[in-house]
Design brief:
5-stranded mixed beta sheet; 16 strands; 40% helix; elongated; binds histidyl-adenosine monophosphate
Length: 425
């Protein structure tokens, strides 16, 4: 019987070497930018207890209700989940390792794959990558502004600032959200006949989520629903004003979007999204906000917090449009050889050359010099080092310059390093 072809899981992508180059450049740019703001990296497990995500993200959210890769550990029966996002794990780690003792604060970041069982399409995957940034223990609007400035600086550095805009909202405190929620329930109850099935269910359990509905028939109803901004408490309003003042000072344009509620329940006060119109339906490239209640909710002493996460695939798609894709870096030298003694000499030389910090690609196996030269040329190396019987016996190496008009040279191997130093640097 013919066996089924093995393929990657739907919505989970390979990142091939040609693309990986762009990923590496992106990650380096982001990590340097984060360092310049004093953020430190934290590395977190990909698997956490399912209960963590239920408690942090909320039981009645799309993520927890239908998108989690949750499973029972066959070995010990524990309920586990592939992380759908990084904030919950980051806060869990901060509490577990007592990072927030005595009012301490931390600026942290992490990078890696996240998993959500969504319907795959362009820009939406089941395994996708985030770079997340979390500021724990700081409550003022200044840190919210800093988090937003990090994004703005990055878009500038990547040359994609013109394609991305900032949307802001404030969700207020628990009381203002409760007052808004009550007003929403009244409003939607009065219009029950116009609600679709999903929204009817949400009306009972999480009426705020109705505002997230993408159903075109419901948009007019949603547009006219009571707005959270009308119920904001004075402290949250002052916080929000403090943030927008700092953004205005920094010359960062923003737009108030009173419908911005976010799909995770832990947020309060500031929420924001960086959006683009260039990627079709999946236009949010980076999103976050404040989550002052989460540390306490997960069992820590109360501590304020705020953060965001960027969607790496979406930003790379934008970046690729703005800039020619990064090319793989060629080796400095390509080493070719023929005959047993020559191969051993070549192998030794390759290691010594690498000890000097020179990138060396060595031909493996056996082939004619002609075939090896073709490979050397195709590799993009500047120099070919050639070991034949004669060279091996004499303790020498022939140096062929592949990218410049210059006579081939034969030198004792101990002189090779001065020559390479002169040619390559
Ligand atoms: P989120 O809005 O769920 O927030 O995800 C953040 C970003 O991840 C999105 O804006 C999007 O760019 C990307 N993203 C989400 N789902 C997918 C997907 N299926 N395929 C491709 N990209 C995707 C969070 O995850 C919060 N933890 C952010 C945060 C950190 N809030 C505070 N701190």
């Amino acid at each position: 019987m013919k066996q089924k072809k093995l393929q990657a899981v739907r919505g989970m992508n390979d990142i091939l070497p040609a693309e990986a180059e762009q990923w590496i450049e992106f990650e380096e740019t982001v990590s340097l930018c984060l360092r310049s703001y004093g953020y430190q990296q934290i590395r977190l497990p990909i698997v956490e207890h399912t209960a963590l995500f239920k408690r942090a993200i909320g039981e009645v959210t799309d993520i927890v209700e239908k998108e989690m890769y949750a499973f029972t550990d066959a070995l010990n029966g524990e309920e586990l989940t592939l992380r759908p996002e990084g904030t919950a794990g980051c806060v869990r780690a901060a509490i577990e390792h007592n990072l927030l003792a005595q009012g301490a604060s931390h600026r942290l970041w992490y990078a890696g794959p996240m998993f959500r069982h969504e319907r795959p399409q362009k820009g939406r995957y089941r395994q996708f990558h985030q770079i997340g940034v979390e500021a724990l223990g700081l409550e003022g609007p200044d840190i919210d502004a800093e988090l937003i400035l990090i994004g703005a600086r990055l878009w500038n550095e990547l040359g994609i600032a013109d394609d991305i805009s900032l949307e802001l909202n404030s969700l207020g405190d628990t009381e203002s959200r409760a007052a808004h929620r009550a007003a929403l329930v009244d409003y939607f109850n009065a219009h029950k006949g116009e609600l679709d099935e999903d929204s009817l269910r949400r009306l009972e359990r999480n009426p705020l989520r109705i505002l997230d509905s993408k159903n075109p028939d419901m948009q007019a109803l949603i547009e006219a629903a009571p707005k959270l901004t009308e119920y904001l408490d004075a402290a949250s309003r002052a916080h929000f004003d403090g943030l927008t003042r700092l953004l205005d000072d920094a010359g960062i344009p923003w737009r108030l979007n009173p419908r911005l509620v976010r799909g995770l329940d832990y947020y309060n006060r500031t929420v924001f999204e960086w959006v683009t119109t260039r990627l079709g339906a999946q236009g949010t490239v980076c999103a976050g906000g404040r989550y002052d209640g989460l540390v306490e909710q997960l069992g820590g002493k109360p501590a304020p917090a705020a953060g965001f996460a960027m969607g790496v695939e979406r930003l790379l798609a934008l970046w690729a449009e703005a800039e020619a894709p990064a090319q793989p870096t060629p080796p400095d030298v390509y080493i070719i050889h023929q005959g047993e003694a020559a191969r051993r000499a070549a192998f030794r030389c390759a290691e010594t050359v690498r000890d000097m910090g020179i990138d060396a690609l060595m031909f493996m196996g056996e082939a004619s010099f002609k075939a090896q030269f073709r490979k050397a040329d195709a590799s993009g190396a500047r120099v070919a080092l050639i070991f034949g019987d004669e060279e091996a016996q004499a303790g020498e190496v022939s140096v062929k310059f592949l990218r410049e008009e210059r006579e081939q040279q034969r030198v004792p191997t101990r002189q090779l390093f001065d020559l390479l130093d002169e040619v390559l640097y």
